[in-house]
Amino acid sequence: MKITVEIPNHKYNIHLKRGILQDVHKFIDLNRKVLIVTDDEIPEQYVMALQKQCPDSYLATIHAGEQSKCFIYLQFIWNALLDNGFGRKDLVIALGGGVTGDITGFAAATYMRGMDYVNIPTSTLSQIDSSIGGKTAINLGDVKNIVGAFHQPRAVFIDPDVLETLDDRNFYNGLAEAVKAGMIGDAALFELFEQMPGDRAVIQADYIEDIIEKALTVKKNIVEQDEQETGLRQVLNFGHTVGHAIESAGELAGLLHGEAIAVGMVQVTEDKAIKERLINVLTKLNLPTTHEYPAEQLKEIIAHDKKAAGSKITLIKVPQIGQAERVKLPLAAIDKYL
Predict the structure, then answer these.
(1) Residue 189, exposed/middle/buried by CB under 10 A (0-12, 13-18, 19+)?
(2) 3-dehydroquinate synthase N-terminal domain: from which residue to which, for each copy (predicted)?
(3) Which of 61, 85, 179, 277 is the most buried (most CB within 10 A)?
């Protein structure tokens, strides 16, 4: 299956197919210097499968986890490119989850003012959401994604089979972003979550490709209309204003991203019937729906959020499932959602 993203001056394909990790060379030129950036929890067989397709490959391995999305590892990737003589016509491949994709994309955006990169996401979260759209970033301190650039990949390869090596927590964590996609832009996707069983094996065997395709289509349609988040793309932040604060409050070592977004979605959903349906879906997927952080702590973090503008913040609300709206509020008004 191929999904095409078309934005001004750039067009790329998302290849979604079981086993496609073995066939990357059929779709993109690997006959050049290739730096594969991965993390130390990615199974060796995935790295080797990719290396076999690259005649001139180099490997840069970072530690797994959100803490690695920092300047030290960004510099590590830059140095790997520089020390091995990479030029603008060479290629960087991100083989890993959202952290690997974000920092690799940012390194590619900034090395020699921009070079090609390819995303091969290996986590549910990155396959469903972060591998497309062109947002690349690192964290600064405990503030997520505050330093970054828009830099679109040349291609994205999504192999659902690689999800088999994830633990249960990380598998379900990523599904939160697909629930979000259903909430903001595809009522049928949300209803699919309501109807299907919560058993991981069944989801992975019978539902995961449909979930990934529907979630990516929601994001693709939005990104094509607003690549750099000047308006419509902000709806993709549903649950993220509060969710990022919850994630940061745990010093990036508490709730996982999807878990925090799950809580954030519940916090900002005002309609009681919609909230009840949302909580039921998240509970089925083993995702949290409450948090224990003090409101003042979350509010202080939100004040530094890049979505805040002076004393105002744009909050995304869902008046009915499948539709989202942007509401600009005074920062003080965020209290009721914390």
Answers:
(1) buried
(2) 61-172
(3) 179
pLDDT tens column, 296-336: 888 888 887 656 656 788 899 999 999 999 999 888 888 88
What CA–CA distance (Å, rounded) separates 21 from 278?
Answer: 34
Q: Furthest-apart CA pair in the chain: how many Å?
A: 58
| Assessment of whether the complete model's pTM goes beyond 0.85 | yes
Based on the residue annotation, tell me whether 2 is a catalytic residue of this protein: no
Of 33, 151, 214, 244, catalytic: 244
Active-site annotation holder among 151, 219, 220, 291: 219
- Tens-place pLDDT, residues 80-102: 999 999 999 999 999 999 999 99
pLDDT of residue 292: 87
State the catalytic residue, choosing from 119, 145, 173, 237.
Answer: 237
- DSSP code, position 142: T
Sheet holding 34-39, edge to edge: 2-7, 10-16, 155-158, 116-121, 91-96, 34-39, 57-62
Is 113 a catalytic site residue?
Answer: yes
Chain segment 157-200, per-residue pLDDT in tens: 999 999 999 999 999 999 999 999 999 999 999 999 999 999 99
304 is catalytic: no
Query: Is 307 one of the catalytic residues?
Result: no
Q: What is the DSSP string of 327-338?
A: EEEEGGGGGGG-
Q: Is 237 a catalytic residue?
A: yes
pLDDT band at 252 (very low <50, low <70, confident <90, very high): low
**What is the residue-wise DSSP string for 208-243?**
HHHHHHHHHHHHHHHHHH-TT-SSGGGGGGTTHHHH
Does the annotation mark 233 as catalytic? yes
Query: Which residue bears the tokens 């972003």?
Result: 177
Residue in 127, 114, 112, 104 with CA at minimum distance from that of residue 37: 104
